[in-house]
């Protein structure tokens, strides 16, 4: 993860802390994210994944340390960084196309613009509609779309201003398993095409491995980076790879680390404990066979 000094990181954290009163959400976070990387953040609930993402977005101020994008200190949101949330946050009274163009419209109002820039924006919106498979619903309203479609609109909207960095907070968390798989391949395609740097938060270890070139495993109380794993899979992902020994080996290791760092008990641990306490008997009673005399 650490880049040589000659190729500066796109995003860099040095000694970053974030506290909420007595709670330490981030403890001494150091991270280098290279340009065009796809990084996933995974870990038990409360380990600081969202807080780290929000500080990178500039939505949350850090308590200590330095955080840079392109070498410049992050002191708030910026046009080079876009965020996608789990809940689609679309404007219900706008069509799909209007939603996608909306952020761009805000930006244009801040700058002098000419017909060429407006035309370029229209071309970009059309290209994103096609890329995200939304061309046939351009004039629909969000309530007429499935959850997966709504999230595609939210991603297209985030991409409209050509951000260099896409920060995604459990964007597929509310989708069903099949839709998630489609979205995984779509976001990998978007990453290849747009050449953006993506930081993606998830609870789901399979999702973290399938999408990430590197998986940053975080641990709670205090929130911190536990270990950074490189994903030993070919760059061009295919769904079948989820059954490969490399995938399953990393999955096993990540799950064990999440359990160990969170003090989480599996259902089996809990059953074993109850059994030892005498509250439950796991061993089946030997069945008494009727004797036929
Ligand atoms: N605004 C806030 N005020 C107080 N405490 C907060 C706030 N935001 C986060 N925290 C605390 O900081 C810690 C990290 O929270 P965070 O939401 O970043 O974790 P997470 O790994 O994203 O969790 P989850 O996976 O459950 O979303 C938690 O203990 C949380 O309670």
Automatic annotation (TrEMBL):
- Domain ABC transporter: residue ranges: 11-245
InterPro entries recorded: AAA+_ATPase, ABC_transporter-like_ATP-bd, ABC_transporter-like_CS, ABC_transporter_ATP-bind, P-loop_NTPase
| Record-linked SMART domains | AAA
For this UniProt record, the keywords arranged alphabetically read as follows: ATP-binding, Cell membrane, Membrane, Nucleotide-binding, Transport
> Does the UniProt entry include the keyword Transport?
yes
What molecular functions are annotated in GO for this chain? ATP binding; ATP hydrolysis activity
Q: Which Pfam families match?
A: ABC_tran
- Give the range the annotation lists for the signal sequence: none
Q: Where does the source fall among the domains of life?
A: Bacteria
Q: Tell me if Membrane is a UniProt keyword of this record.
A: yes
- Family to which the UniProt record says this protein belongs: Belongs to the ABC transporter superfamily.
**Record's protein name:** ABC transporter ATP-binding protein
The organism of origin for this protein:
Ideonella livida
């Amino acid at each position: 993860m650490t880049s040589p000094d000659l190729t500066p990181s796109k995003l860099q954290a040095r000694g970053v802390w974030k506290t909420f009163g007595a709670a330490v959400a981030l403890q001494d976070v150091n991270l280098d994210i290279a340009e065009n990387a796809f990084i996933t953040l995974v870990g038990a609930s409360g380990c600081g994944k969202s807080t780290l993402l929000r500080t990178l977005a500039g939505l949350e101020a850090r308590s200590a340390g330095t955080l840079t994008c392109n070498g410049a200190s992050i002191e708030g949101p910026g046009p080079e960084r876009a965020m996608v949330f789990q809940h689609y946050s679309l404007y219900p009274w706008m069509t799909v196309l209007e939603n996608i163009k909306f952020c761009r419209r805000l930006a244009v109002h801040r700058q002098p613009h000419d017909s060429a820039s407006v035309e370029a924006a229209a071309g970009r919106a059309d290209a994103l509609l096609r890329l995200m498979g939304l061309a046939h619903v351009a004039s629909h309203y969000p309530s007429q779309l499935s959850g997966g479609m709504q999230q595609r609109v939210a991603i297209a909207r985030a991409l409209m201003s050509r951000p260099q960095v896409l920060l995604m907070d459990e964007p597929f968390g509310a989708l069903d398993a099949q839709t998630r798989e489609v979205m995984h391949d779509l976001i990998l395609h978007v990453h290849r095409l747009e050449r953006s740097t993506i930081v993606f938060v998830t609870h789901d270890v399979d999702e973290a491995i399938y999408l990430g070139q590197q998986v940053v495993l975080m641990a709670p109380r205090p929130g911190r980076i536990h270990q950074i794993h490189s994903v030993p899979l070919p760059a061009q992902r295919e769904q079948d790879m989820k059954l490969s020994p490399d995938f399953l080996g990393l999955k096993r290791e990540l799950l064990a680390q999440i359990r160990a760092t969170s003090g989480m008990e599996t259902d089996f641990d809990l059953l074993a404990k109850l059994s030892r306490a005498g509250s439950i008997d796991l061993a089946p009673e030997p069945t008494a066979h009727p004797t036929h005399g």
